[in-house]
Amino acid sequence: MDTGKYRDKKPSSSSHPSRKNIILFPHEKHYGNWLQRRVQLIFARKEISGSQTLRKIDINARAIKEGNAYFRQEGIKNVNLIIHRADKLKQFADKSIDVIFTDATLMYIGSDKIGKVIQEARRVSRKGLIFSEWDCEDNSREYLWLDGHWIYNYKTLLAKYFPSGSIKIFRHPEGLWEDESWSKFGAIIEVRL
Q1: Residue ranges covered by each domain of the chain
Q2: Which distant-in-sequence residues (6+ apart) come within 8 Å of 25 by Cβ?
Q3: pLDDT value of position 185
Q4: Is the pLDDT of residue 78 over 90?
Q5: Phi/psi zone of residue 105: left (φ > 0), alpha (ψ -120 to 50 degrees), beta?
Q6: I want to staple 124 with a disulfide (CB 3.0 to 4.6 A). Which of 44, 92, 129, 132 is the partner?
Q7: Exposed, middle or buried: residue 152 (CB in 10 Å: 0-12, 13-18, 19+)?
Q8: What is the 3-state secondary structure (H, E, C) of the chain?
């Protein structure tokens, strides 16, 4: 897959048109586990009031350092960036985050860890989960492995942990992505608690 052609022809993922559909809970107290770049945090920061907090965890120390420096420079105090892993959420108390959001994150969590990650996200979240991930609609499989990415069947996976009525999967509209894999598998997966 040639991701370079995507970057040359379309806007970066942080400014992609799908972003306008991502913030489904714009007035919640916290957004947790937002594993994306500082550009998306800036976008989200504009959607929450000064008394609310946006939390972001990422394994990339450089991104966290640059993001924290930027927010200090801009005088933005209600964004909390920390170095952390999505598969290690024990430091967060039960129901301590309103909405957990992932963006192209769970595709890097192995099939041996994904169940634990979902369980921890459920434990930590008060109101819901929103995943922007690749989704496998093939009901005969729990997951696919493609080009170094895990593509989970979220309908099947999440049904193990949540009532089916609380799970909604929205396929990205045709033509939204030029990237072949995002076009084929891209989806917003929502779980309301």
Answers
A1: 3-192
A2: 31, 98, 99, 127, 128, 130
A3: 94
A4: no
A5: alpha
A6: 92
A7: buried
A8: CCHHHHHHHCCCHHHCHHHHHCCCCCCCCEEECCCCCHHHHHHHHCCCCCCCEEEEEECCHHHHHHHHHHHHHHCCCCEEEEECCCCCCCCCCCCCEEEEEEECCHHHCCCCCHHHHHHHHHHHEEEEEEEEEEECCCCCCCEEEECCEEEECHHHHHHCCCCHHHEEEEECCCCCCCCHHHHHHEEEEEEEC
For 130-173, the pLDDT digits (tens) are 898 999 988 889 999 999 999 999 999 999 999 878 899 998 88
Using CA atoms, how far apart are residues 43 and 185, in angstroms rounded to an integer? 25
> For the segment 29-73, what is each residue's pLDDT rounded down to a tens digit?
323 333 333 334 444 555 555 566 777 777 888 878 888 888 888
CATH architecture of 3-192: 3-Layer(aba) Sandwich (3.40)
- The residue written with tokens 């005969």 in the block is 140
Counting every residue written for the chain, the total comes to 193
> How many CA atoms, within 13 angstroms, populate the side-chain half-sphere of residue 47?
19
